[in-house]
Design goal:
Layout: H1 10-16, E1 23-29, E2 35-41, H2 42-47, E3 51-54, E4 79-84, E5 90-91, E6 99-107, H3 118-131, E7 134-148, H4 176-181, H5 183-196, E8 200-205, E9 211-216, H6 221-240, E10 244-247, E11 263-269, H7 286-306, E12 328-330, E13 337-339, E14 349-351, H8 360-377, H9 400-408, H10 411-417, H11 419-437, H12 442-448
Parallel strand pairs: 1-6, 12-13
Antiparallel strand pairs: 1-2, 3-4, 4-6, 5-6, 7-9, 7-10, 7-11, 8-9, 11-14, 13-14
Helix pairs in contact: 3-6, 3-8, 5-6, 6-8, 7-8, 7-9, 8-10, 9-11, 10-11
Family: Belongs to the glutamine synthetase family.
Protein name: Glutamine synthetase
Organism: Parasedimentitalea denitrificans
């Protein structure tokens, strides 16, 4: 790769202008969304076209244990070939030297994509759209909390101290004063994002104590998933500079709203560039209705991917800014599927079920998969919901085990996401769930120890 620097994105070239590159982080996302890989000297990176990493990184649980993801030939732990996608090269501006990060794609020894690599799963789904002459467009929204340092897991998570010297306040949604409380952290987020070439559409205060939301400009699903993957790291690094943590847990603080990754979807006709959700006169199309119908039909099985941990299900609480069912409506934030106000060219469908704790590649892939199945199967949605959807019945899984059962039984979703991915994902998630069930909680000790 002697000419690799000539392929760098403009933002990476600008970051290195007049400087000597010291190190390149060669990374890939694992199932939880953690960056795995190797840091190598820039001179070595220039001499290599690929590097190896064991495929077992995709069998690792969030606790660092391993799901027994053995196939017919057993668990061999084969080497993968990781090749850089230079379009993803971006700065790591928080490091002490001049460092670039580069996302790599994972292949086996025969050159075939590793089917349970999250980025490859998303590419697979996008390719299904492409084969039909469609171009999917997404816009993710990232919610997260800035919290006080928590070095003892037995202690409850508390809001961070704001600039005023008081803990961050709850129920201050869209307050500019509340945003100012985190000014130094937000300044670093902006600076890091600019150095990495990312465009932020806006930052707002959400309803939780210390809860913020960052919106990204709509675009290509793979590019946006890359950005969310990068953003999680840069936000954490910005928080650490100011003696606090950034957390993307779905429900970090009891009695506060959870953190979601709402995903907006529209589909373009690749040949014409027009939104297939709108007809010639701006009317809603069959494709629009089928996409919603697919979400209502297949999201229950996909929730195991959109809500990947036991904590995720604590977010689906009535009247706490998270959906409890799969009803849909226009301009109604109580429903799980929302159609925002827009003109015909921008008509889109928002999935409000995904948690911010999901892997962005897998969350976007699963959401697009549900819509794709609806388009192919020509699913019809229910009637548009009128009123407060929190008053309606709950119809989504309430615990991880039930969600995994639905996922395991969904042949249609497995076909779109990939059979091998679905097998490995289920094994890893069941290993995590089983480990959780071995832990006795403080609630059990308080209420059961002497009373039952």
């Amino acid at each position: 790769m002697s000419d690799w620097k000539s392929t760098l994105p403009e933002s990476a070239t600008a970051y290195l202008e007049g400087r000597r590159l010291d190190e390149v982080e060669c990374i890939v996302s694992d199932l939880p969304g953690i960056a795995r890989g190797k840091a190598v000297p820039a001179s070595k990176f220039a001499r290599q076209d690929f590097f190896h990493l064991p495929d077992s990184v995709f069998y690792q649980t969030i606790t660092g244990d391993w799901g027994e993801a053995a196939g017919d030939d057993g668990f061999i732990e084969k080497d993968m070939v990781l090749r850089p996608d230079m379009s993803t090269a971006t700065a790591a501006p928080w490091t002490g030297d001049w460092t670039l990060q580069v996302i790599h794609d994972a292949f086996d020894s025969a050159g075939e994509p590793i089917p349970f690599s999250p980025r490859n799963v998303l590419k697979r789904v996008v390719d299904l759209y492409t084969a039909k002459g469609w171009t999917p467009v997404v816009a993710p929204e990232m919610e997260f909390y800035l919290v006080a340092r928590n070095t003892d897991p037995l202690q409850e998570i508390k809001p961070m101290m704001g600039r005023s010297g008081r803990p961050a306040a709850a129920r201050q949604a869209y307050s500019m004063t509340a945003v100012d409380e985190f000014g130094p952290v937000i300044d670093d987020i902006y600076d890091f994002a600019e150095a990495q070439g990312f465009e932020i559409d806006g930052i707002t205060q959400e309803g939780g104590a210390g809860q913020l939301e960052i919106n990204l400009v709509h675009g290509d699903p793979i590019k946006l998933a890359d950005e969310v993957f990068y953003f999680k790291r840069l936000i954490r690094e910005a928080a650490l500079r100011h003696d606090c943590y950034a957390t993307f847990m779905a429900k970090p603080i009891a009695n506060e709203p959870g953190s979601s990754m709402h995903v907006h979807h529209s589909i373009l006709d690749t040949a014409t560039g027009k939104n297939i959700f709108s007809g010639p006169d701006g009317e809603e199309t069959d494709a629009f209705r089928h996409f919603i119908g697919g979400m209502q039909t297949h999201l229950p099985a996909a929730i195991a991917v959109l809500a990947p941990y036991v904590n995720s299900y604590r977010r689906y609480v009535k009247d706490h800014a998270a959906p409890i069912n799969l009803s849909w409506a226009k301009d109604n934030r109580t429903t799980g599927i929302r159609v925002p106000l827009s003109g015909p060219s921008a008509r889109r469908v928002e999935n409000r079920l995904a948690g911010m704790d999901c892997n962005p590649y897998l969350g976007i892939a699963a959401s697009l998969a549900c819509g794709y199945l609806g388009l192919i199967e020509q699913r019809q949605p229910s009637a548009e919901f009128k009123g407060d959807a929190y008053a309606a019945d709950e119809d989504i899984p309430q615990v991880m085990g039930d969600a995994l059962d639905l996922f395991d039984n969904s042949e249609a979703l497995h076909e779109v996401l990939g059979e091998d991915f679905s097998r490995v994902y289920s094994i890893v998630k069941r290993a995590e769930y089983d480990e959780f069930l071995q832990v006795i909680s403080p609630w059990e000790r308080e209420h059961l120890l002497l009373n039952v």
